[in-house]
Amino acid sequence: MSRTIITPPGRFNMPDWREVWAAREIFVRFGQKEILLRYRQTAVGVAWVFVQPLVAAGVFTIVFGGIAQLPSGGVPYFIFAFAGQMAWSLFSNIISRASNSLVANLALVQKVFFPRIIVPLSVVTSILLDFAVSFGLFVVLLLVFGINPGWPILLLPVWVLLTVLLAMGIGLAASSWMVKYRDVQYFLPWLVQILMYASPVAYSMEAVEERGLAWLFNLNPITWLMEAYRWSLLGQSAPAPWQVLALAVAALLSITLGVLSFQRNERLFADVI
Question: What residue stretch is flagged as signal peptide (predicted)?
Answer without folding.
Answer: none
